[in-house]
Amino acid sequence: MTSARPFEGTYPADSGFWVPATDADMYPWRYGDLVATPESPDRFGAVDSKGKPWRALMLTHPSCELSSKGAPGGVQAVRVYWLREVSQRQGAEVVTGYVEVDGRTRVARAHQVYLAPVPGHATLGQRLFADLRQSVRIPGEPLRAAGRVGAASHDARLAVLRRDIYFRYRWALGLDDVLGLEKLRIEADDNFTGPRPQWTAPGHRGDRPSPA
Amino acid sequence: MVGVRYCVHMSRKVAGDMTLASFAPGAPLERIGHRELRDKLGPMLERISASHGAVEVVNRGRSEAVVVSHDVYTVLLASQRELDDVRGTVALLLAAVSSGAAVPSDTLDRLGIKIPVDFDVLQAFQAAYPAQVTHDEEGQRLGRVPALSLESHAEYVDEPDEFVDVEE
Q1: Which end of chain A has fewer CB atoms within 10 angstroms, the N or the C?
Q2: Is B93 touching A (CB cutoff 8 A)?
Q3: Looking at the domain assignment, is residue B34 inside a domain?
Q4: What digits encode the pLDDT tens for the residues A150-165?
């Protein structure tokens, strides 16, 4: 039997964040994947205030495999930054997702999602973060042409989902809760393609949410 | 005049100067016997409530209970929870310091404990350490998430929208 939780903190270790490039083709494009900024990004609003293209995009919708189901008007994605674009203090808060203040551990930077470096990538092989507040919708074709840079591991997707749920609804779900929900979703999806997470394997203990 | 504030944990009014400081460990409490308590129950409860105090109930010289005002009880519960928070946070900070992980912390900053920021170390630490995040960004306690009842359903397959013409 495997352990119930794939990681203990806010995010998995860097080494487990992205699917190895050699295996990525087995994984369809999904929520949480890192995609290069397409050509002419100004057409989609994927530029900063000075008109410079965003560093990259993280996919946020559809939540399942892209193009397997109808999605009006393309794909939703959010802006990705280099972590070194913010102060060290903010960078530390993004990496942990929490901060200690007055003896209490608080949520920090709820709208920002840490993303590990993409091994071997020229510009994205460094620590990154996505800003859930800055979203765009882009047709699938230019996104496909731009290419996927990193396929999020199933474990990383748990972390992104958990962060996104808190950002949108302020539901402070535990990792076990998100894992249980995602496990059920995958098991109920007859069209699920690609390798399944190990926590969907029979006998895995992560099949029930933690008590409140 | 005693100010009134709201205890954020219990949503109850508590006296502004209500603390547990007056309940020093080992300090003697006012004592009352069973019979006396029964005979004076109403006035006694009013007095305990008004004084935010506590009275020890004894039976044949043996202490059986302590009656406290609701305010005191509320503060006791809140204090226990805050103690749990602090205990968890102290454990987190100790683990961070011993690992050399620069966890963002106002307390460490105030204590002058400077840990050089090494994102490799910090990221590995956060992935492995089960920090209990208890408060939101503004410092309010996070609400408890009820136990989820999960049911498995076949995934809904999106059908194309079928719009119809409507009169303006």
Answers
A1: N
A2: yes
A3: yes
A4: 999 999 999 999 999 9
pTM recorded for the entire structure: 0.82
Is A2 contained in some domain? no
Question: B162 — contact with chain A (CB < 8 Å)?
Answer: no
pLDDT above 90 for B160: no
Of A179, A183, A209, nearest to A196 by C-alpha is: A183
Q: What is the domain range of residue B64?
A: 4-68
Q: Is A88 on the interface with B (CB under 8 A)?
A: yes
Mean pLDDT score of chain B: 84
Mutate to test the interface with A, among B133, B134, B136 (most CBs of A within 10 A): B133
Residues B58 and B34 in one domain: yes
B139-157 pLDDT, tens digit each: 999 988 888 777 776 655 6
Task: Tell me the two tokens of residue B134.
Answer: 């208890």
Q: What is the pLDDT of residues B43-93, one digit of tens each?
A: 999 999 998 888 999 999 899 999 999 988 998 888 888 888 899 999 999
CATH number for A193? 2.30.30.110
Its domain, for residue A163, covers 14-200
Q: Give the Cα separation of A142 and B33 in Å (integer).
A: 83
Which distant-in-sequence residues (6+ apart) come within 8 Å of B130 by Cβ? A8, A9
The pLDDT assigned to B6 comes to 39
Q: Tell me the C-alpha distance between B109 and B9, whole Å.
A: 28
**Distance of CA A73 to CAs A62, A67, A159, B26, Å?**
11, 12, 27, 71
Last residue within a domain, chosen from B68, B88, B108: B68
> Pick from A34, A58, A29, A71: which is nearest to A194 by CA?
A29
Closest CA to B30 of B60, B1, B4, B51: B51
Give the helix, strand, coil percentages of chain B, each rounded to 5.
35, 15, 45
Query: What average pLDDT does the segment A101-107 reach?
Result: 96
Say whether both B102 and B55 belong to one domain.
Answer: no
Q: Is the pLDDT of residue A7 over 70?
A: yes
Interface A-B, measured as beta-carbon pairs within 8 A, has a size of: 157
According to DSSP, the residues that pair with B99 across neighbouring strands are none
